[in-house]
Amino acid sequence: MENFFFQGQKFTPTINFNGETGILSIEGQSYPEHAEEIFAPVLGWVQRYLDTPNRTIVLNFHLSYFNTATSRRFQDLLEILEAYAKEKGGKVTINWYYREDDYDMLENGEDYIESIDLNINLVSVKHSEE
Amino acid sequence: MHDNFQITKYYNEFNKNGITAVFQGALSQSVLSEIAESLKEKISGREPIKNKVFAIFIELAQNIYHHSADKKHFHTTDSYIGVGIVAIRDLPDSYSLSAGNIVKKHQREALEERCNYINGLDKQHLTEYYRQERKNAKGRTSTGAHVGLIDMVRRSGNPLKIHFDSISENLSFFSITVTVNKNWQPLTTKIKTNQTV
From CA A29, how far away is CA A9, in angstroms rounded? Predict the structure, then answer.
């Protein structure tokens, strides 16, 4: 399947979903006023990708900030992956990167761990490596 | 008509009150981004404090964009954008973010009830409420997550200060202030980390 790529700007994230490797990544910052418009094609791509069962997927969240409207789209994305793991034999790993002193981003990750039945790793990143 | 507008009055008033940035008008995406990104330069504090001010500013401004009862039509994008005022103040011990916009009667009642409820929750219940509300957002709205107000309290660690001024029987001016303490420290130091890069 073709890859999905969206070049982020100031208020939109760079989204890079590789159909061959199964590595999906969302990076940067995300605070569009209409998050639903930005994420509709992303969710559409993922749904088509998941028509094929038993895929191995790694989803990397590497963001410095996202607004609450975006957080709802992440929830939608994770729910789609949760259903795929339960019903279609998908092997799904989520890596949630946060800057070591960014407790709000850490809490955002913990929110998803509590809300979603998937393997979500919290990965702390040191300052200097950014 | 005699025009006695003096912009120096505002300049002096803003300086006296530690205003870092203020904007009145339609909070379009480009205006919002410019102000938000410039805050990263203007706020001299620690990184977590900078991030909090940035995040709370965006939630406040986007609340105006979506919920202000006063909307301006933009021909180029054929969209309606909420009008209001936002101000960020750099005070000795805190950054104070204020926003104001016109709301309708039913919005006022809902806002009063919601803010009072949120202000009464401790950290743990706030977290649970946030997670629950985001899950429930699907059936309610097509845009937001319905958690902006909760998000601001979680980030700031301070209650929302709200005020309403009646304009007419059906309209009020809604003001909200969120404070970020400059000496903010995380409540818990427990960090559930699986890996460190």
Answer: 8
Q: For position A129, what pLDDT does the model report? A: 53
Domain ranges within chain B, ordered by starting residue: 7-181
Q: Given CB atoms, is A25 within the 8 Å cutoff of chain B?
A: no
Residue A43 domain boundaries: 4-129
Query: Residue B26 and residue B82: Cα distance in Å, rounded?
Result: 6
**Amino acid identity, residue B89?**
R
Chain A contact for B66 (CB, 8 A cutoff): yes
Strand partners, B43: none
- Mean residue pLDDT of chain B comes to 92
Residue spans of chain A under pLDDT 70: 128-130
Instruction: Please give the backbone phi and psi of residue A112, each rounded to the nearest 5 degrees, phi first.
Output: -70, -35
The count of domains in chain A is 1
B7-181 is a CATH 1.20.120 domain: no
Q: Does A93 touch chain B (CB under 8 A)?
A: no
Instruction: List chain A residues with CB under 8 Å of B142.
Output: 36
Q: Identify the pLDDT of residue B76.
A: 85
B171-181 and B161-166 strand pairing: antiparallel
Residue of A nearest to B133 (CA): A72
Q: What is the ipTM of this complex?
A: 0.93
The answer to whether B137 touches B145, Cβ cutoff 8 Å, is yes
Above 90 in pLDDT, residue B144? no
Report the CATH number that the domain containing residue A45 is assigned in CATH.
Answer: 3.30.750.24
- Asked if A31 lies within 8 A of B36 by C-beta distance, the reply is yes
- pLDDT reported for residue A95: 98
Compare CB distances from B59 to A36, A67, A123 and report the shortest one's residue. Answer: A67
CB B83 within 8 A of CB B68: yes
**Of A31, A101, A111, Cβ closest to residue B47:** A101
Element (DSSP H or E) covering residue B24: strand B19-26
Residue B195 predicted with pLDDT over 90: no
